[in-house]
Design goal:
The protein has a five-stranded mixed beta sheet, with helices on one face. The protein folds into three domains: 7-80, Roll (Ubiquitin-like (UB roll)); 93-182, Alpha-helical ferredoxin (Fumarate Reductase Iron-sulfur Protein, Chain B, domain 2, Orthogonal Bundle), CATH 1.10.1060; 187-221, no CATH class. The chain has helices spanning 25-31, 102-106, 118-122, 129-138, 141-147, 156-160, 167-182, 187-197, 202-210, 213-221, and strands spanning 7-12, 15-20, 51-55, 63-66, 76-80. By secondary structure, it is of the alpha+beta class. Strand 1 (7-12) and strand 2 (15-20) form a beta hairpin. Bound molecules: FE2/S2 (inorganic) cluster. FE2/S2 (inorganic) cluster binds at residues 40-43, 45-50, 66, 68, 152.
């Protein structure tokens, strides 16, 4: 006889559903019959597509987290956010002047940070979001890039910010600029790019493209692997 499934009740978009205990919010929604088209991506906590808000019974606080990483709880009220309505400033990496305080020029609202730390508390990655916004204010893009490195761009920080700062866009801008203009360049990478551009691998690539699937599998098995 199969063990009986423990069920919990959750409210999704205001409607009650019985779902098995232990599911993530994302799986609970799918079990309840929702077909997720927006607000879902990798299902592994990396893409940041599944921002979700919820309340727990008897608790007035509004919580936010990633639906694919958060376990549904009995009597939880759940609402999904298919996207965070935050504006990204228009910029082109090749046209930026990283010497000036380009972050404040593109995102002047950064100066409105009141250091309430709501952004850091909202971050499902547990990043020190407020600290990198303060670093942006000082023009320290190395620090912004470092502290925002694990950002998955879910937007929950921006959603909770009383100063309407779009933290995750600020972090992305700093990382791109830091990578392009400030980070020490890797010599071996530059050498390999030069090899590729000079056509060193063109013939090998042509051969691979003409191989059948079986030949490719065989070639993959026999490849040189660094011990
Ligand atoms: S679906 Fe990608 S982080 Fe949740």
């Amino acid at each position: 006889m199969s063990a009986e499934l423990e069920m919990i009740r959750v409210y999704i978009m205001g409607r009650a559903y019985e779902v098995p205990a232990g599911l993530t919010i994302m799986k609970a929604m799918e079990y309840a019959g929702y077909r997720l088209v927006r607000g879902v991506g990798c299902r592994g906590g990396f893409c940041g597509a599944c921002a979700t808000v919820f309340r727990r019974p008897g608790d007035y606080k509004l919580y936010a987290d990633l639906a694919c990483q958060t376990t549904a709880e009995d009597e939880m009220y759940i609402a999904q956010i298919p996207s965070v309505p935050a504006e990204r400033a228009p910029w082109k990496l090749s046209e930026l002047e990283p010497e000036e305080n380009f972050i404040l020029a593109l995102y002047p609202e950064v100066a409105r940070c009141v250091a309430c730390n709501t952004c850091s508390r909202a971050c499902p990655q547990e990043l020190e979001v407020m600290d990198y916004i303060q670093a942006a204010l000082r023009g320290d893009i190395a620090q912004v890039a470092e502290l925002s490195f694990d950002c998955v761009q879910c937007g929950l920080c921006a959603m909770r910010c009383p100063a309407e700062i779009v933290h995750y866009h600020v972090g992305q801008l700093a990382r791109r600029v830091y990578g392009a203009y400030r980070a020490p360049q890797a010599g071996h990478l530059a050498a390999r790019v030069e090899e590729i551009e000079s056509g060193t691998f063109d013939q090998e690539l042509d051969t691979l493209q003409q191989m059948s699937r079986d030949e490719l599998v065989e070639a993959y098995r026999k490849r040189d692997v660094e011990k």
